[in-house]
User: Which sequence fits this backbone?
């Protein structure tokens, strides 16, 4: 049963099926290579845990902590680095994992930051894309679902730190 005040947009079953498909695409694109998977905290944590288990090549995992949403549903252009990766990425293939791309400001900042460490490639995989709100031009290499302009929670995404543990994606009413 959904929580009160939430509309389920993407069910647990649909997420599972799509995550498996994305993992298979990634495995075939990087077949025979080894990659560094970097999850953006905190929103990407659950998605990353599921998608790396669908990857068949060797992966190293690390996390980058950034903050852009200050406890509300209002987006901020200012992105702050809270915690850095420890796995070296120089000369390696990096796959960035994030929960959602909205304005694109955080991913733009993160990509530029990681680029300065000299990886041989950086690709982006997001579970959700809200293209109607994009402010900067970003290539999304792997996309789970395109969603309308609504504030969503669940499967790692929060509202004031709540709802991350819901197994589905829901919109606040
Ligand atoms: P940006 O606007 O693309 O920079 O998005 C920044 C971050 O805001 C995302 O990585 C999410 O963590 C968060 N965010 C954006 N839209 C939503 C939403 O609908 N629900 C929860 N978090 C969101
Ligand atoms: Mg995020």
Assistant:
């Amino acid at each position: 049963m959904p929580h009160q005040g939430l509309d389920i947009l993407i069910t647990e079953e649909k997420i599972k099926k799509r995550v498996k498909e994305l993992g298979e695409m990634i495995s075939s694109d990087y077949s025979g290579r080894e990659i560094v998977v970097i999850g953006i905290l905190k929103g990407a944590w659950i998605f990353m845990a599921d998608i790396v288990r669908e990857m068949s090549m060797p992966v190293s995992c690390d996390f980058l902590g950034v903050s852009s949403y200050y406890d509300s549903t209002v987006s901020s252009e200012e992105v702050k680095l809270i915690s850095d990766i420890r796995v070296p990425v120089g000369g390696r293939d990096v796959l960035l994992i994030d929960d959602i791309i909205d304005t694109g400001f955080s991913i733009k900042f993160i990509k530029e930051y990681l680029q300065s460490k000299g990886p041989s490639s950086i690709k982006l995989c997001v579970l959700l894309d809200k293209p109607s709100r994009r402010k900067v031009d970003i290539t999304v290499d792997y996309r789970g679902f395109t969603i309308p302009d609504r504030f969503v929670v669940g499967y790692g995404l929060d509202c004031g730190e709540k709802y991350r543990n819901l197994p589905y994606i829901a919109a606040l009413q």
Summary: The pocket of inosinic acid (ligand 1) is lined by residues 43, 68-69, 75, 98-107, 151-153, 157 (CB under 6 Å).
